[in-house]
Amino acid sequence: MYHSKMAGDARPRQRPFLITFNFVVGDDEPLAHHVPKPSYYSWGQANWQEYSRLVSEDCKRFPTKGTPNQQAKFLSRSIAKATAKAVPKGVTRVRHLWSADLEDAERKCEKLLSPIDGTTPSQRREILFSTRERKRLLSNHCKKEWGKVCADMKPTNSATWRTLHNIMSAHPTPTNLVVEGGREVPFTSQANHLVSFFKTKATRHPRAEVPRLPPRPTSMFRAITRQELASALRRISYATACGPDDVYNEALAHLPKIARVALLRTFNRSLSRGMVPREWRLGTIVPLLKPGKPAGRVESYRPVTLTSTVAKLVERILHGRLRHLVQSDSQAGFRADRRSTDALMWLRAHVQPTNASKTPLTSAVFVDFSRAFDSVDHHLPLQR
User: Fold this and answer.
1) What is the pLDDT of residue 157?
2) What gap in Å lies between CA 222 and CA 317, rounded to an integer?
3) What confidence score (pLDDT) does residue 362 get?
4) 258-293 core/surface letters (b: 16 or more CB in 10 A; e: else)
5) How many CB atoms lie within 10 A of CB 68?
6) CA distances from residue 100 to 91, 128, 143, 144, 251 in whole angstroms, order as listed
7) Closest CA to 284 of 317, 255, 247, 318
8) What is the distance between the terminal CA atoms of the chain, rounded to a whole angstrom?
9) Nearest-CA neighbor of 282 among 262, 311, 239, 253?
10) CA atoms of 52 and 258, how far apart (whole Å)
11) How far is CA 175 from CA 13, 35, 195, 289, in A?
């Protein structure tokens, strides 16, 4: 990085002037697009009493006679606003892994970087030296802690296998997306290229008819009860990403009674009118790099959509009602308490010959469709 300070007078009819500047070299950091680090909530330091009070005060103005869109939007805004006020942001450092030397180096760098605008060359050199010293201390500290972890590894310890799995598993690369021509593009252009690419993959059968909603049996689409809502809230997972509405599962689990009643009314209003609120249909698409694929190609990414946690909650309730009617007993994948080994054992038991019988030879064909989900017309399952 180069810092310069020039001075001079370029007005006409002046004698030749000198341009003086300071030239500082020494920053070995690679150039890259600046991406602000997200600020995460520290749920362990949350003030849940204050959170319940804020949500309860807000829910007194809940639009009981409003549309599902209005009710869902009101609840999402209320929960997100209360979360921002009652839950502090930032991840606290693990003190037993943070030495006193690192604490002093961190405090010194923060003090030097605070008045970074208008600094002198000597101050910039001091900042550069302090930053390098902090990196050196952090590197030595990490090597020392990693040595302790390796010394404590045992084959019978589950933590050892978790550590090895995290090391061997694929991790996203920070390499920028490269498009045609071998040129890197900024993040906004990357998003546009990904949207244009995946938009062509979602196809629809040319002879597909307009889908019609199936009849609604009263036993399946009856009103959601408080017991069903409480059971679904107990089974939600923590430390997961939220959707565009900024509502986290931790916040849903600590909803007060008045907010749960309002949430139940929103679910039943949406169910009775057959309307999915707009807040629940929005999602944030995150492209994840496939293992072993080059990071510079658009087709190497798998899009994952982060949807509303409130929508996932009502989907969990309806899933408990529908799974016994929709899922077939012959399906082994994507089902609770079922796995692919069940299907393999069934196939082996029916195909493998025994000593007492002479079973003819059997041929098996296994087909793996590339981009199967993208190429299937999503309206056809309703017709089946």
Assistant:
1) 83
2) 12
3) 73
4) bbbbbbbbbbbbbbeeeeebebbeeeeeebebeeee
5) 23
6) 18, 21, 16, 15, 35
7) 247
8) 62
9) 311
10) 10
11) 52, 13, 19, 11
Instruction: Round the CA-based radius of gyration of the chain to a whole number and report it.
Output: 29
- Return d(Cα 48, Cα 79) in angstroms, integer: 12
Q: How far from 185 is each of 35, 200, 287, CA to CA, in Å? A: 14, 21, 15
Mean pLDDT of the chain: 76
* Rounded mean pLDDT, 159-187: 70
Contact 376, 383 (CB under 8 A): no
- CA–CA gap between residue 285 and residue 107 (Å, rounded): 37
Distance CA(245)–CA(73), nearest Å, equals: 9
Q: Could you give the angle at the alpha carbon of 245 between the alpha carbons of 240 and 251, nearest 5°?
A: 55
- Determine what percent of the chain is predicted with pLDDT higher than 90: 22
d(CA 300, CA 351): 38
**What integer pLDDT is reported at residue 182 of this predicted model?**
65
State the SS3 of the chain: CCCCCCECCCCCCCCCCCCECCCCCCCCCCCCCCCCCCCCECHHHCCHHHHHHHHHHHHCCCCCCCCHHHHHHHHHHHHHHHHHHHCCECCCCCHHHCCHHHHHHHHHHHHHHCCCCCCCHHHHHHHHHHHHHHHHHHHHHHHHHHHHHHHCCCCCCHHHHHHHHHHHCCCCCCCCCECCCCCECCHHHHHHHHHHHHHCCCCCCCCCCCCCCCCCCCCCCCCCCHHHHHHHHHCCCCCCCCCCCCCCHHHHHCCCHHHHHHHHHHHHHHHHHCCCCHHHHCEEEEEEECCCCCCCCHHHEEEEEEECHHHHHHHHHHHHHHHHHHCCCCCCCCCCCCCHHHHHHHHHHHHCCCCCCCCCCCCCCCCCCCCHHHHCCCCHHHHC
Q: How many CA atoms lie within 13 A of 107 on its CB side?
A: 7
- 352 contact partners, CB below 8 Å, separation of at least 6: 359
For the cut 90, the answer to whether the pLDDT of residue 139 exceeds it is no
